[in-house]
Amino acid sequence: MSVCVGLWLIEKEVVVRDMNVITPDVKLGRDVKIYNFVNLYGCEIGDETQIGAFVEIQKNARVGKRCKIQTHTFICEGVTIEDEVMISHGVIFINDRDPWAVNPDGTIKTEADWECIPTVVKKRAAIGSNATIMCGVTIGEGALVAAGAVVTKDVPANTVVAGNPARVLRKRS
User: In whole angstroms, what is the distance from residue 134 CA to residue 15 CA?
Assistant: First the structure.
């Protein structure tokens, strides 16, 4: 299996070229296209997906087939993006409802000290630039999240949401 990374064609190996970091535990599908300055670790990327520059996708995140993840997007642990989803520029996913740097005793928090709250983006949904997706929500199949929206609750299938907090505007055809 090979993947196009910037101007490099790679086989399964740790890659640090063109300022990309792709760890060996990343599962890359067929014909994945990755642009420069990308950080991928412990995630899964489906066939024919495109990942723009300055994107980070963390461990235990999954991106489906034929998705477009555009520049400056952050996909954290616990996020599942199904097939044929469009994630526009600068989208941020959040996986912790009540983040703290330290525990009550002042010790720095570790992975064992917090709960990852999963988020799901269903097939053929689209998320506009600079949207923020809070944890624990499901964005329904074919839904559209407008640019700049802050999604704090589930988005029904085939609807358009906008605002802060995001609210339903209309059905999407």
Answer: 31
* Tens digits of residue pLDDT in 136-152: 999 999 999 999 999 99
Strands 167-171 and 159-162: antiparallel
Q: Considering only CA atoms, which of 43, 33, 59, 41 is closest in space to residue 116?
A: 59
Statement: the pTM of the whole predicted model exceeds 0.90: no
pLDDT, one tens digit per residue, over 40-78 is 999 999 999 999 999 999 999 999 999 999 999 999 999
| CA distance linking residue 24 with residue 1, whole number of Å | 13
Name residues whose C-beta falls within 8 Å of residue 143's C-beta, 6 or more positions apart in sequence: 122, 125, 126, 155, 156, 157, 158, 159, 160, 161, 172
Domains of the chain, CATH where assigned: 1-97+112-173 (2.160.10.10)
